[in-house]
Amino acid sequence: MADLQRTVDELAARLDRPLLLEDRIQRVVAYSEQSGAMDDVRRDSILRRHTVPEVRQWLRAAGIHEAAGPLRTPGAPHLGLLPRVCVPIRHADGLLGFLWLIDAEPAMTDADVAEAAAAAPGLALALFHESLASGLASHRELEAVTGLLLGDREAAKDAAEQLIEAGAFPQAQPVSVQVARPRTAEPDDALRLALEQGLLALRRRLSGHHPLHLVRYDHAVLLTAGPPVPADDLHAAMPVPVVVGIGRPGPALAQAAGSYREARQAAEVAARVPGLGRTAEWARLGVYRMLTQLPDQELHPGLEGLLADAQYLPLLETLETYLDLAGSAVATSRALRLHRTSLYYRLQRVEELARTDLKDGGERLALHLSLKLARLSGRYLPRDSHGSSRLR
Question: Using DSSP, how many helices (H) and how many strands (E) does the chain show?
Answer without folding.
Answer: 16, 10
